[in-house]
Amino acid sequence: MELLATNRRDRQRVACAYGAFLNESGTRLTCGLLFVMRRQARAVIVLQCPQTKTRLRVRLPRMLLGAKGHALAKNITLEVVP
Fold it and tell me: What is the pTM of this model?
Protein backbone atom coordinates (compact mmCIF):
# COMPACT_ATOMS: atom_id res chain seq x y z
CA MET A 1 0.00 0.00 0.00
CA GLU A 2 1.25 3.50 -0.81
CA LEU A 3 0.66 6.20 1.82
CA LEU A 4 1.24 9.95 1.54
CA ALA A 5 1.39 12.77 4.10
CA THR A 6 0.95 16.42 3.09
CA ASN A 7 1.20 19.68 4.97
CA ARG A 8 -1.91 21.74 5.61
CA ARG A 9 -0.85 25.03 4.08
CA ASP A 10 0.08 24.27 0.48
CA ARG A 11 -0.55 20.48 0.32
CA GLN A 12 3.11 19.65 -0.41
CA ARG A 13 4.22 16.11 0.41
CA VAL A 14 6.12 15.73 3.67
CA ALA A 15 6.36 11.93 3.75
CA CYS A 16 5.76 8.90 1.52
CA ALA A 17 5.54 5.27 2.61
CA TYR A 18 5.78 2.44 0.08
CA GLY A 19 5.07 -1.24 0.66
CA ALA A 20 3.28 -0.42 3.92
CA PHE A 21 1.00 -2.78 5.84
CA LEU A 22 -0.64 -2.82 9.27
CA ASN A 23 -0.04 -5.61 11.75
CA GLU A 24 -3.00 -7.69 12.91
CA SER A 25 -3.73 -5.58 15.99
CA GLY A 26 -3.52 -2.30 14.05
CA THR A 27 -0.94 -0.72 16.37
CA ARG A 28 2.13 -0.93 14.12
CA LEU A 29 2.68 0.07 10.50
CA THR A 30 5.58 -1.63 8.72
CA CYS A 31 6.97 0.26 5.71
CA GLY A 32 9.25 -1.26 3.11
CA LEU A 33 10.47 2.24 2.22
CA LEU A 34 9.79 5.49 4.08
CA PHE A 35 10.81 8.84 2.61
CA VAL A 36 10.60 11.97 4.81
CA MET A 37 11.23 15.43 3.40
CA ARG A 38 13.90 17.64 4.94
CA ARG A 39 13.23 19.77 8.02
CA GLN A 40 10.21 17.74 9.11
CA ALA A 41 9.60 18.95 12.67
CA ARG A 42 6.40 17.18 13.70
CA ALA A 43 6.76 13.73 15.18
CA VAL A 44 3.14 12.72 14.54
CA ILE A 45 1.95 12.83 10.93
CA VAL A 46 -1.17 11.60 9.13
CA LEU A 47 -0.50 9.16 6.31
CA GLN A 48 -3.33 8.71 3.81
CA CYS A 49 -3.88 6.14 1.08
CA PRO A 50 -4.77 7.95 -2.19
CA GLN A 51 -7.02 5.12 -3.44
CA THR A 52 -9.02 4.21 -0.31
CA LYS A 53 -8.63 7.49 1.64
CA THR A 54 -7.67 5.49 4.73
CA ARG A 55 -5.94 7.77 7.25
CA LEU A 56 -3.38 6.64 9.84
CA ARG A 57 -1.73 8.83 12.47
CA VAL A 58 1.82 7.58 13.03
CA ARG A 59 4.75 8.68 15.16
CA LEU A 60 8.04 9.16 13.29
CA PRO A 61 11.32 8.09 14.93
CA ARG A 62 13.51 10.91 16.23
CA MET A 63 16.29 10.07 13.75
CA LEU A 64 14.03 11.17 10.85
CA LEU A 65 13.11 14.58 12.29
CA GLY A 66 14.83 17.89 11.59
CA ALA A 67 17.31 16.56 9.04
CA LYS A 68 19.04 19.01 6.71
CA GLY A 69 18.48 16.61 3.82
CA HIS A 70 15.69 14.21 2.94
CA ALA A 71 15.56 11.09 5.13
CA LEU A 72 15.18 7.56 3.79
CA ALA A 73 14.47 4.47 5.88
CA LYS A 74 14.07 0.87 4.71
CA ASN A 75 12.03 -1.80 6.52
CA ILE A 76 10.96 0.47 9.36
CA THR A 77 8.11 -0.08 11.83
CA LEU A 78 6.09 2.95 12.95
CA GLU A 79 3.76 3.25 15.95
CA VAL A 80 0.12 4.01 15.05
CA VAL A 81 -1.25 6.71 17.36
CA PRO A 82 -4.99 6.65 18.22
Answer: 0.86
